[in-house]
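wait is this the right file?? whatever heres the structure
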């Protein structure tokens, strides 16, 4: 029996296996996968199992734990330190006497080694064996010494080329819960879970670094706060202080050894590696080096201009596990601690140059249009490196344009808070570096203003847009592309603040300028016309809005490079314009197509998909599919509430939509509970005199009447109608809807003559402003029939009822709930569903 053999419950031969790590934590999934893979693959002929991963991730520790945990399954376990390939044969030859073979001292190392391999492969005298080759970096030196037989072989290596020879299991850094558990196990009550989480985050969950940190903290009684501070200030020095007892070298020593070896053989690889240190710790797109080869500075230009030298450099970096390469995503990654060590050892002058190289690489490889959703994946890859690379401090205009494209990507993706935070940083830094009136600062202010609009902070949006638009007009000129962009944004802010006419005037002017400068079909002209269509929608010009949006939709559907988000927004607004013009069934079909497109292309929870869902639910209710409308609006409201909270315009609109659906379903108490808090939010978000603030109260007044308080409802509707008539005019959709409900309030109070007079005036206004078959006209006429009858005008009521019934059936269908309510002699009501700004 060998000197290091274990008791009878373990293998008969237990040689050279390192001591079990008492602090080993987690890795259950990897141990299970390793055991399963070895058993499956090596059922007949032993196939080695290679554990491959970055230095310091715990490959050796995993192999040690596997040997100890599964030792009862083997008769022989032999550990081979393979970091020096020339010594491997002699280690294997040392097994000869154990197997009953002549020792190397009598036959020579080579013959003894071959005899050992033959004995293992034959399964005599032991069939259950495990041979572990630790740190086998070069497959070419080791593969001839791997036994193929009934036992198992385990290999640890940083070299990904083992996957060309043997099955491999990738070993990555700890999962966060494993890191926290390890540190708590190692340090006990000396570290809290929160501190362990902070430390693990700073050390990138790298097991070697965590072990070194724990050893240093345990030895010096240093606080976690002190350690983190030192780590930021003196990375290399700190990581050199304590050699991890379960690892052969300190973090710094291991790193410096790899880099020095590479510097001697492929200096270009070290230069690329140094560059990678100034990216973030997230995966770096491989294409930044290929596409950026014409924009970088003098340090990298000779390397990137030669694809052969670049490929050679990256290959060597991968072989030494200085970078982790992921072929499927075409990315490479350097561990954050390794990056910190490189940055720490780089002279300050060189750091600035390398950072600038990274800025040029990122901006040079970026896609052109963040609104094109096919580019989002590439922007996502680059966004991870924005802050770590210090790109915000670059003064080069092209780099700043890229930085703005990144926040535009975040904006169109729906990450408004993230975009807002970055833009505030841009504006602060760029103002200090270049002056508050610099065009890059002004462009960032426009982006920030747009973000304010999406976050429903409309007063901030109007203030900043007004200021920036004036500054751009003065410094860049009224027809500069940036100025026109600010103009349309300012129009949106005015629209959000309720000044619909002024917004329409600005958008119409911008659309004309764009058309003159670029033509009808240019993307900028199309965007300006889209904004004008929104103005038409909120000023009750639904036919004009529908025609503009139809033309834009046809154009967007027929050309390449139009982002899915832009197409979806046009689709939503077109279906809304169709619905508001009275074509409920067509609008429902269009809204359903838009919604399913949004789910498929942007996902369920993207803000624009939720916008499509809300409009689809409204169309479902309008077309009579109440159950479907109630279910979809309830789900949409929940999602928007989770995304924005209750005090956001989109959540408030969905709350009113849900209240309207609940009311239509007869759930008045639930509808009131939903409508009241939403209506209370409107003055805070939009202002006391905004048309939406007044119109939202239409829904509440209706619910109060239906709940038995027509007098209070009548007072509310009379006040709302006066205010809306003053703000948007008596012929506006909102005012006419309120007038129809006020007519019903008066009738409920028995004031039929007043109800009839108001109904006749309202119907005249509707038929002047809208088509005879418009929904508002049908509802008003249906109610007027009852008021005519109540005031003794039987013949007139009968005539109007026959005409209205025919129109209802032609427009709505005979089985529509409101058509049935008309036939049953019930009064019909109007409500308000706030459109997006």
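ok assuming it is, sequence goes like this
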């Amino acid at each position: 029996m060998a000197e290091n053999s274990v008791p009878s419950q373990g293998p008969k031969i237990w040689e050279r296996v390192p001591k079990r790590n008492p602090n080993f934590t987690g890795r259950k999934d990897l141990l299970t996968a390793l055991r399963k893979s070895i058993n499956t693959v090596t059922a007949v002929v032993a196939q080695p199992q290679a554990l491959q991963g970055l230095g310091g991730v715990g490959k050796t520790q995993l192999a040690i734990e596997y040997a100890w945990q599964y030792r009862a399954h083997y008769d022989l376990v032999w550990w081979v330190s393979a970091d020096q390939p020339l010594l491997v044969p002699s280690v294997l030859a040392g097994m000869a006497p154990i197997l009953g073979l002549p020792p190397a001292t009598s036959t020579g190392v080579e013959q003894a080694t071959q005899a050992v391999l033959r004995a293992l492969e034959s399964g005599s005298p032991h069939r259950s064996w495990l041979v572990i080759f630790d740190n086998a970096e070069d497959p070419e030196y080791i593969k001839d010494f791997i036994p193929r037989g009934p036992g198992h072989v385990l290999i640890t290596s940083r070299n990904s080329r083992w996957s060309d020879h043997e099955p491999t299991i990738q070993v990555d850094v700890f999962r966060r819960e494993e890191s926290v558990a390890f540190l708590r196990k190692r340090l006990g009550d000396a570290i809290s879970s929160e501190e362990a989480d902070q430390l693990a985050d700073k050390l990138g969950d790298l097991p070697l670094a965590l072990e070194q940190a724990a050893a240093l903290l345990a030895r010096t009684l240093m606080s976690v706060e002190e350690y983190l501070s030192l780590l930021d200030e003196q990375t290399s020095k700190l990581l050199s202080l304590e050699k991890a007892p379960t690892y052969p070298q300190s973090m710094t020593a291991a790193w410096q050894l790899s880099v020095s070896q590479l510097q001697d053989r492929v200096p270009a690889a070290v230069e690329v590696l140094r560059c990678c240190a100034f990216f973030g710790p997230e995966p770096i797109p491989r294409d930044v080096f290929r596409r950026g080869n014409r924009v970088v500075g003098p340090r990298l230009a000779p390397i990137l201009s030669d694809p052969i030298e670049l490929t050679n450099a990256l290959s060597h970096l991968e072989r030494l596990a200085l970078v982790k390469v992921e072929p499927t995503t075409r990315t490479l990654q350097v561990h954050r601690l390794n990056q910190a060590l490189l940055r720490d050892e780089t002279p300050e002058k060189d750091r600035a140059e390398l950072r600038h190289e990274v800025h040029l690489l990122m901006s040079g490889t970026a896609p052109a249009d963040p609104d094109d959703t096919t580019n989002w994946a590439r922007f996502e890859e680059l966004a991870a490196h924005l802050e770590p690379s210090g790109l915000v401090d670059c003064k080069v205009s092209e780099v700043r344009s890229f930085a703005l494209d990144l926040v535009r990507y975040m904006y169109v993706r729906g990450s408004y808070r993230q975009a807002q935070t970055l833009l505030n940083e841009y504006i602060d830094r760029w103002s200090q570096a270049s002056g508050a009136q610099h065009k890059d600062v002004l462009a960032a202010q426009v982006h920030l203003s747009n973000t304010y609009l999406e976050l429903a902070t409309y007063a901030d949006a109007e203030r900043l847009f007004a200021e920036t638009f004036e500054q751009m007009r003065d410094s860049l000129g009224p027809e500069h592309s940036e100025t026109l962009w600010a103009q349309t944004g300012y129009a949106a802010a005015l629209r959000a603040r309720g000044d619909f006419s002024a917004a329409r005037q600005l958008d119409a002017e911008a659309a004309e300028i764009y058309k003159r400068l670029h033509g009808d079909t240019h993307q900028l002209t199309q965007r300006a016309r889209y904004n004008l269509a929104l103005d038409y929608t909120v000023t009750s010009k639904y036919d004009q809005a529908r025609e503009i949006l139809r033309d834009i939709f046809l154009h967007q559907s027929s050309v390449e490079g139009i982002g899915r988000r832009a197409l979806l927004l046009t689709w939503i607004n077109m279906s809304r314009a169709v619905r508001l013009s009275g074509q409920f069934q067509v609008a429902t079909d269009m809204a359903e197509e838009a919604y399913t497109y949004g789910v498929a292309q942007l996902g369920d929870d993207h803000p624009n998909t939720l916008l499509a869902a809300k409009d689809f639910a409204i169309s479902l209710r309008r077309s009579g599919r109440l159950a479907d409308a109630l279910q979809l609006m309830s789900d949409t409201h929940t999602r928007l509430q989770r995304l924005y909270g209750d005090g956001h315009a989109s959540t408030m609109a969905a709350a009113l939509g849900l209240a309207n659906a609940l009311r239509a379903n007869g759930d008045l108490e639930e509808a009131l509970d939903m409508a009241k808090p939403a209506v209370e939010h409107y003055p805070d978000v939009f202002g006391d005199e905004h048309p939406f603030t007044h119109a939202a109260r239409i829904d509440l007044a209706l619910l109060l009447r239906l709940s038995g308080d027509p007098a209070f409802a009548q007072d509310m509707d009379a006040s709302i109608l006066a205010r809306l008539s003053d703000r948007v005019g008596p012929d506006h959709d909102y005012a006419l809807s309120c007038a129809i409900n006020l007519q019903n309030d008066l009738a409920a109070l028995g004031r039929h003559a007043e109800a009839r007079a108001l109904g006749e005036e309202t119907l005249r206004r509707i038929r002047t402003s809208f088509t005879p078959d418009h929904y508002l006209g049908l509802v008003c006429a249906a109610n007027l029939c009852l008021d005519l009858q109540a005031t003794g005008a039987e013949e007139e009521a009968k005539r109007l009822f026959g005409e209205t019934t025919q129109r209802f059936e032609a427009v709505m269908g005979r089985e529509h709930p409101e058509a049935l309510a008309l036939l049953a002699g019930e009064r019909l009501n109007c409500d308000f569903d706030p459109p997006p700004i």
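Strands lie at 13-15, 48-52, 76-81, 129-134, 152-157, 168-170, 284-285, 324-326, 331-333. so i think its the right one actually
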